[in-house]
Amino acid sequence: MPLSHFEELGLLSLCGQVDLKFVNFFYGTNPGSWKSRFPYNRLLFILESDGASTFGDGIRSCRAERGSWFLLPPFQEITHDHNETMLHLSIHFRLTVCGGFELLSGRHAFFCGRDPVLVNGVISEIREKDALRLASGLCAWCWTVLHRVMPQVSSSAVPALYANPAYAELFDFFWKHATAATRVGDMAAFLRMAPESFVKKFTRDTGISPGKFLNRIVAAHAMTMLSGDRRSIKEIAAALEFCNEFYFSRFFRRESGMSPREFRKRFLPAAFPEFPRP
User: Measured in whole angstroms, how far is the alpha carbon of residue 57 from the centre of its chain?
Assistant: First the structure.
């Protein structure tokens, strides 16, 4: 058989366009009942649990048993009912193609499975507290789970995006620069298109409107700021160019399902907890 580079699939170029970037990590317990809707993916490994905690999406509810994992796609509302026994590692990440299109964004249900061997490996690496090993483990665990669920993921939008290299520049620019003051007309101007034609084409190619796309970017930046630094909510609202804190809070609640203050209280990291030794 002659050697092949999978040219017919455009594999090498596509691999250069697929990007996994971590947003944050949360390790510990987070008891309570609430709803969440984040603009990025969340992969949770259940390290300890009495099996009473659950995740739900309005259609089904699954128990969080020790050794199980949950992959929560972006923009999907999740109902949490967690007790103090549910020790978990939550990995927040973006999985994009062509500069900024979320590969799992069209999914309307979460993924879950049980793999005690994989979860025991997660526990072992956390106990070691070796930063480089843990970093490589985080990448490997994400890709392991993603490879398992890919047969269930519709990637029908990817060919249309990949066929237009201008999308990569568009996504990259607005991911870096979008704020509450950014308008759909700015995106149309970036591609030198009339606004109406741009809206129709973008919605057809991606499955979402450009306005919703911009909102998702701003919400993602807001969540990163709220969980990653100590600026006040008023300062974050100003940095994202909202006219005041009230409009920022209303926007954030609509996009995430909770207020900025509630989000910060729940997700601003505390000190690194010790994993219980056997």
Answer: 16
How far is residue 175's CA from residue 173's CA, in Å, rounded to a whole number?
6
3-state secondary structure at position 33: strand
DSSP 8-state code for residue 39? S
pLDDT along the chain (278 residues), means of 10: 80 78 91 89 97 94 97 91 97 82 80 97 95 96 95 67 75 90 96 95 86 89 85 94 96 89 77 47
CB-CB contact of 66 with 47 (8 Å): yes
Distances 107 to 45, 76, 104, 116, 161 between C-alpha atoms, Å: 20, 8, 6, 26, 17
pTM for the whole thing?
Answer: 0.74
Q: How far apart are CA 94 and CA 220, in angstroms?
A: 10
Q: List the domains of the chain with CATH numbers.
A: 9-152 (2.60.120), 158-267 (1.10.10.60)
Report the first-to-last Cα separation within the chain, whole angstroms.
52
Dig out the tokens for 39 from the structure: 């603009």
